[in-house]
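Deliverable D2.4 — example input (structure tokens):
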């Protein structure tokens, strides 16, 4: 069930509010400048982490939810075609390239101790998870060449090019089934989920691309294998950081990549925990709808993340651009924004205390299927 359409003022506020995405990469130079000003560079190296996982959840709860939707008849198509929304996501690519190069320089030449180096690396990884992976996720779903290409380059800068293949051709096909490594089972802890997701999502990307090439009569080791290009670009980026900053530069590139891709998989855990598609009488799974992903309509995080939290509608209609994704009342609803839910997921007993009752309530009349899907 849909909420009432959004008034024009709400849509105008959102349109301007998406510019908040620029604040995320700016947190890195902000932390560096505060470190120089206060004489506490090691502490200020953690500013992006403190902001994203400390301030943002508080703002979410203070500002509240935005559950309004654009009018399907009069606004959606025009918004889908507006260049402004597309330009914002494409802007992430040059920002990420410049930020990665500059942050590597600070990591190597900045006045940082061990605690500061660790904070700077983790902070850049968290920022990359948002500016590179989250925005790449939007871009790889688009048609044409420019946007998917830009998404692939962004993913290469965090060593996760396989996501471009596996997410679209694997995750979206098998979501909320046992065949999907990115859909967490009911009762599965984050720490059991992560190693499985890291391994199988990487392997499945190569399997899917190999099968695509085989259908064209081509071997997997072929220039048309797009994973060779994306991971080749990752090697170029890693080599460039090494040439520019030595082995510490390579360490920084690898470290921020690992943090970023892990952040992605934690979000995957949050987005699909415990949900399943019902198996039909003929053995097939029901069609994916807005009831197979957790939804969160907290206003602040949705502006920062280009409405990634309206994940229920995204899985039901992957072709819809972020600006026209909808809130559904009957989608399963998260009790917080993604930053708050990530913190909760890192503590499995608290996670299960909060989330398991919600899963059980959602499937209260079909607990047998829930057990079978776990």
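Example output (designed residues):
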């Amino acid at each position: 069930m849909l909420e009432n359409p959004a008034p024009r003022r709400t849509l105008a506020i959102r349109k301007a509010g998406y510019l908040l995405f620029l604040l995320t990469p700016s947190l890195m130079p902000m932390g560096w400048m505060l470190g120089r000003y206060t004489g506490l560079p090691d502490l200020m190296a953690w500013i992006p982490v403190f902001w994203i996982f400390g301030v943002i959840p508080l703002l979410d709860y203070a500002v509240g939810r935005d559950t309004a939707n654009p009018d399907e008849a009069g606004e959606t198509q025009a918004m889908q075609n507006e260049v402004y929304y597309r330009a914002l996501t494409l802007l992430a690519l040059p920002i990420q390239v410049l930020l990665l190069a500059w942050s590597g320089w600070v990591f190597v030449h900045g006045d940082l101790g061990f605690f500061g180096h660790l904070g700077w690396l983790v902070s850049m990884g968290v920022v990359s998870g948002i500016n590179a992976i989250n925005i790449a996720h939007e871009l790889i779903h688009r048609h044409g060449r420019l946007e998917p290409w830009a998404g692939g380059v962004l993913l290469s800068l965090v060593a996760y090019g396989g996501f471009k293949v596996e997410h679209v051709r694997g995750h979206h096909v098998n979501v909320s089934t046992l065949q999907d490594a990115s859909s967490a089972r009911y009762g599965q802890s984050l720490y059991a989920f992560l190693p499985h997701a890291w391994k199988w999502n990487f392997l499945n990307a190569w399997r899917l691309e190999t099968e695509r090439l085989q259908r064209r009569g081509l071997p997997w080791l072929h220039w048309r294998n797009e994973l060779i290009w994306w991971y080749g670009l990752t090697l170029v980026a890693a080599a460039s950081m090494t040439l520019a900053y030595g082995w510490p530069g390579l360490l920084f590139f690898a470290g921020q990549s690992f943090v970023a891709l892990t952040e992605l998989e934690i979000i995957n855990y949050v987005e699909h925990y415990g949900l399943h598609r019902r198996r039909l009488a003929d053995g097939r799974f029901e069609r994916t709808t807005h009831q197979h992903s957790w939804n969160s309509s907290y206003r602040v995080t949705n502006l920062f993340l280009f409405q990634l939290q309206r994940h229920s509608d995204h899985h039901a209609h992957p072709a819809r651009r972020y600006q026209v994704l909808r809130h559904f009342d009957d989608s399963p609803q998260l009790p917080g924004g993604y930053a708050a839910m990530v913190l909760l997921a890192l503590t499995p007993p608290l996670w299960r205390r909060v989330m398991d009752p919600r899963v059980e309530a959602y499937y209260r009349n079909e607990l047998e299927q829930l057990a079978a899907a776990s």
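The chain has a mean pLDDT of 94.
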